[in-house]
Write a structure and sequence with these properties.
The protein is 35% helix and 25% strand. By secondary structure, the protein is of the alpha+beta class. Strand 1 and strand 2 (49-51) form a beta hairpin.
Length: 272
């Protein structure tokens, strides 16, 4: 399709969702709940794993989305980055399996993350968790949904403390600064899924340690925004995509209603 982001965000979201579900089924064929994957596993430079399922899902997404958005550049965890993308207004950003270690070990909290960027910001995004049967999706200006139900983070009082996910040292430092109790949930291996839990209200907020990449966060960024939240570094500014730098500093994903109070503590904790 020839992209007009103001007109076509919903259609783009639906195309991303269909491709993410198809890629999810490809990966799911190798997944074993509570057991090691049937896919061959290799180690990439830097020590992170990659499986045949990652590569098969990535190839499917590149084929499907390349056909759907021929004018867009491409950025994926499993594809060598091509600097030619920097000259494109549109960009597809993909993590075919976000949470590969979880996938390998039989933990269902992994996801297919796909976003369409236009002029530096996402206009459509999908985080699909096949083993959990959960699909988060958003289109710019049209809201965000979980399995078709609109997302609106619930209003809460600060008195009960915060239900949170992320690196414990950073969260505990925030709690000390806020004078609030941090109820830290067990580690959520997919960063995209972790941020979607903040978008849905299952978490009050979520943080990510340094060195996440754009493919981990681009789709969840829009889902958070369309659910009434934000994903930011310590500056508090919205993230920009399709830049030469794709690796991020520490990140905060939170509802807009909480963000001003949380940001001060987040900056202090990140600085520490």
């Amino acid at each position: 399709m020839s992209l007009d982001p103001n007109r076509d965000a919903l259609a783009a979201r639906d195309l991303l969702a269909a491709a993410a579900r198809e890629a999810g089924e490809v990966a799911r064929a190798y997944f074993r709940v509570g057991a090691t994957t049937s896919a061959a596993v290799k180690t990439k430079p830097g020590g992170s794993p990659v499986t045949d399922a990652d590569l098969a899902a990535d190839a499917l997404l590149k084929r499907r989305l390349g056909e759907a958005f021929p004018e867009a550049g491409w950025l994926s965890e499993e594809t060598v980055d091509d600097a030619a993308r920097l000259g494109r207004r549109a960009l597809i950003v993909v993590d075919p399996i976000d949470g590969t270690r979880a996938f390998v070990d039989g933990d269902p909290r992994w996801a297919v993350s796909v976003a369409l960027i236009f002029d530096g910001r996402p206009v459509a995004g999908v985080v699909h968790a096949p083993a959990l049967e959960e699909t988060y999706a958003a289109a710019r200006g049209a809201g965000a949904a979980l399995n078709g139900a609109p997302l609106k983070p619930p209003i809460r009082s600060d008195g009960a403390g915060y239900r949170v996910a992320g690196p414990k040292p950073l969260l505990n430092a925030m709690g000390a600064r806020l004078g609030a109790t941090m109820h830290i949930v067990p580690f959520v291996p997919s960063l995209a899924y972790r941020m979607c839990l903040a978008a849905s209200g299952a978490l009050d907020f979520a943080v990510a340690g340094a060195n996440s990449n754009d493919w981990d966060i681009a789709a969840a960024d829009l889902i958070l925004e369309e659910a009434g939240g934000r994903l930011v570094e310590a500056s508090g500014d919205r993230l920009r995509y399709n830049q030469a730098r794709i690796q991020r500093h520490v990140l905060l994903g939170a509802p807009d209603a909480l963000a001003p109070r949380l940001l001060e503590a987040f900056r202090a904790a990140a600085g520490a």
